[in-house]
Structure formats: C-alpha cells, structure tokens
From TrEMBL:
Protein name: Benzoyl-CoA reductase/2-hydroxyglutaryl-CoA dehydratase subunit, BcrC/BadD/HgdB
Gene3D superfamilies recorded: 1.20.1270.370, 3.40.50.11890, 3.40.50.11900
Example GO molecular function: hydro-lyase activity
Origin: domain of life: Bacteria
Record organism: Parafannyhessea umbonata
InterPro entries: FldB/FldC_alpha/beta, YjiM-like
Family named by the database record: Belongs to the FldB/FldC dehydratase alpha/beta subunit family.
Pfam families listed in its UniProt record: HGD-D
C-alpha cells in the first residue's frame, strides 16, 4: 500500500465527494476501537502486524492505490458488492477490482430511516447511512455496485440504493434444484456480460483461469490458517482471524494471500512450540450466524476478553468464504462460468430453504476445531437467521454441544448485558 507520509488524504477524500469532517469522526471512533480491542491482546503472532497495517490503511493507502492507479492510466474499474454470492472471479477476469461494501457500524441512522424502516437490520441501515452521509471511500470509489436478491431487506433496500449509485442486482434462487441451478448459471453469465460492458474487456479463457486460481490461492491460505486453530493452546485469536477475512474483502488479493500464508506459517510454528494467544484449556467457542462487517468486532471482543477464544466462524465472514474451491480444470469459458456458479450456489446462507448444510457444517467445524460451545448470533431484525436458530439449537443439543443464541445490533448499549450472558455461558462449559 502507498505510504502515509506527506500525502493529503483529506484532499483525496474530498475529491471523492466525501464529507471529510464526518469521516474524520468515523476514523477516530474506529481507531479508538481498534486500539482498545486489538492492540490490548496479549502474545499476538508477530505476523498480525499486517492486520495493523491494513487497519491503518483501509480508508487511506488502499483507496489511494485505487485512485492513483486510475490517474496513472490503470483502466481498472472498481466494483462494490455486499454479499458472498457475487463471484469475485468474474469481476477480476474482466479486469475490475472487487471491494466489499458491507457496513459494520451505525452511521446517520436518521437519514437511513427516511429510506428504510426503523426495524431494518443494522447491516442494511449501515450501508444506507454510509452512502447517505458520504463517509465510505469504497462506496464513493466504486464504478458499479452489485447487489443481490437475498433477504427481503436487502432486496428492497437496493431499490433505494440504486437511485443513489449505479447498481446491478443479481437474482439469487432460494431453493436448490436443477431448474434453479440453470437459472443461477444464467444469472452469473448475465453478471459477466455487465462487468465486461463496464470495463470494456472481454473475459478470456486465460483471464478466467487466472482469476479462479488467484481466488483459490486466497482460500487455500485461509484454510491453512484455519487448520492451526484446532490446537490447544490456539495460536491466534478469533478477533485477528475475523479481521483477516474482513481484509480479504478490501485488500489486494496477491498481497493479502502472501500475508495470510505468513500468518499461517507462524501459527504452525507456534502450534509446534505449544505457544498460544490464550492459555491452554481456555474455553473454545465456535461462532455461527450473520456476517460481521468492519468494524463490527463487539461480540468477538466480549467473548475473548471474558477469557475464552473463538476458534472458528461458520458465516460469510468466515468459513463460507473459503471452504469450497472452484475447479481449475474447466476446459472452456462456459465450463468455468458453470463451475463458478455451482460453487457459489452451495454457500449455506439462511435465504435457502431447506438449509441443512449449514447445521452440518457447524457440527463438523465444532468437532474439527474442538469447540466447547457454539455461539449463534443474528443481527437484530434478521428474521432468516433468527428462524434458523431454532433448528441450530436442536442440532447442537442432539450432538451434545452447549449452544447459545444472541441477537444484537451495532450499538454498544447492550455490551454489559451481553458480557453477563456470555460469562454465564462460559461458566457452564
Ligand atoms: S450470503 S448471509 S452476505 S445474504 S443480516 S442483510 S440476511 S437481514 S447479510 Fe448475507 Fe449474502 Fe447470505 Fe452471506 Fe439480510 Fe440478515 Fe441483515 Fe444479512
């Protein structure tokens, strides 16, 4: 990433049309949280300095790279997305850069509530508020936003968001069968056409094959890191792993993959040496539920500051992002696009019915990562994940794994109450 020295980032943010003063307030609040939550952790792997670097550059150096690349004649367009169903391979094969836009903080809620109901999930309200208050450099840098018909809240919010920003909405099926597989394959091809139109570059066999490989390498690095977390003591915190995935939605893929492999290598050595981020025997939690966008670190911080450690995440900012690869042996562009579509259709989101694969994944991960308990969290007003909590609790109970469900938003108001509940849960493990 470009260095911070002597560069006028405030001018850059202003040139993107952002509200620079409001953005100063956002950066200060996030910086404070980062210091309180991440930098107070003891015995972090040294290679997590990459995460400190990402955190301090996320709105500055990384955006400067994207903006300066354009000024220097790099024709790459920026495509923003909000969901794991948007295939990054297609965006990069057509010569664009994909960035994640989900907002993990409440911002300008009064403005957002003019367009979406008050009882809308905080993730949706967050991205609407970020756009309306002009405080997200990723939204402002994006040439196109790709949305998706997943939950009702997002589906309807894109109708309003699309009036503020050029938005292409993908139709994601909600059941899996041969008809919907074909429909989804067509939808993925429709996206490919739209991105080609945006960049003016045709997807070729070569570019698509390279994009598949690049995304798979990132996933393999994340899987490698993930495997080290089965050890006791666990070599790296859940907070640092969560931020690693969050960074994957924003940073350059090659740099990120190298950094994750460095972290995995150090964690492997720590496992060999019996060195951990928490003492041996610390209670081990598997997280499942709704995604956690930057800077939503609240729950992981409470769990880990209570003496437990998060050893895995079954969610879109976790294993769903990296567990399945796209086959690399597709012979033609059409084969490769179908392989991509099929891989993404298997993401175990609660929009699908039935969605038993999610329960199976949670139980498998709990076994593989030696979890003592499962914490299932849905963002407030997320009916889908709230509904799935019933079946998840039964599945955990049948498997003999202690389980707890939490519903929370982005505000710090319920932190005390959450801490009490989580401590009581850890006590009984
Ligand atoms: S693939 S989980 S990223 S849709 S929390 S906005 S579901 S009301 S984020 Fe998601 Fe894609 Fe599924 Fe993953 Fe709606 Fe629920 Fe809010 Fe949600």
């Amino acid at each position: 990433m470009a260095g911070q020295e002597e560069y006028d980032y405030r001018e850059m943010w202003g040139s993107l049309g952002m509200d620079v003063e409001a953005h100063d307030g956002l950066l200060a609040a996030v910086g404070q949280m980062y210091g309180d939550m991440f930098l107070t952790q003891g015995n972090r792997p040294k290679s997590t300095s990459y995460l400190d670097f990402v955190a301090s550059n996320i709105h500055s150096g990384r955006i400067r790279e994207l903006v300066e690349g354009r000024e220097a004649g790099d024709p790459r367009k920026v495509v923003g997305s909000f969901c794991l169903y948007v295939p990054e391979e297609i965006i990069s094969a057509a010569g664009a850069v994909e960035v994640g836009l989900c907002a993990g903080a409440e911002w300008a809620p009064e403005e957002a509530e003019k367009l979406v109901p008050r009882n809308t999930c905080p993730l949706i309200k967050g991205f609407m508020g970020f756009k309306l208050a002009s405080v997200c450099p990723y939204i402002e840098t994006a040439d196109l936003v790709v949305g998706e018909n997943t939950c009702d809240g997002k589906k309807k919010a894109y109708e309003e968001f699309g009036k503020l920003k050029d938005t292409f909405v993908m139709d994601v099926p909600h059941v899996r069968n041969e008809d919907t597989r074909q429909q989804w394959r067509n939808e993925v091809k429709r996206l490919a056409g739209r991105i080609e139109e945006l960049t003016g570059q045709k997807i070729t066999e070569e570019s698509l094959r390279a994009a598949i490989k690049l995304a798979n390498q990132k996933r393999l690095a994340l899987k490698r890191l993930d495997q080290t977390r089965a050890a006791d003591p666990v070599p790296i915190s859940g907070l640092d792993c969560l931020l690693t995935i969050q960074a994957a939605f924003m940073d350059d893929s090659v740099r990120l993959t190298g950094a994750i492999n460095d972290m995995a290598q150090e964690c492997e050595a720590r496992v060999e040496a019996g060195e951990g981020v928490a003492p041996k025997g610390a209670k081990r939690i598997l997280y499942t539920g709704t995604p956690m966008a930057v800077p939503n670190w609240k729950l992981f911080n409470i769990i880990e500051k209570s003496g437990a450690v998060v050893v895995g995440e079954e969610c879109c900012t976790g294993s769903r992002y990296y567990k399945d690869l796209v086959p690399e042996d597709g012979a033609t562009i059409d084969d490769m696009l179908n392989d991509i579509a099929d891989r993404y259709l298997n993401i175990q989101c609660a929009i699908f019915t039935p969605n038993d694969g999610r329960k199976e994944d949670v139980l498998r991960m709990a076994r593989e990562l030696n979890a003592d308990g499962i914490i299932d969290c849905s963002l407030q007003f997320c009916t889908l994940y709230d509904m799935e909590a019933t079946g998840m609790e039964l599945a955990a109970r049948d498997a003999g794994i202690p389980y707890m469900h939490i519903s929370t938003g982005y505000s710090a108001d319920d932190e005390g109450q959450l801490k009490t509940r989580i401590e009581a849960f850890l006590e009984m493990l």
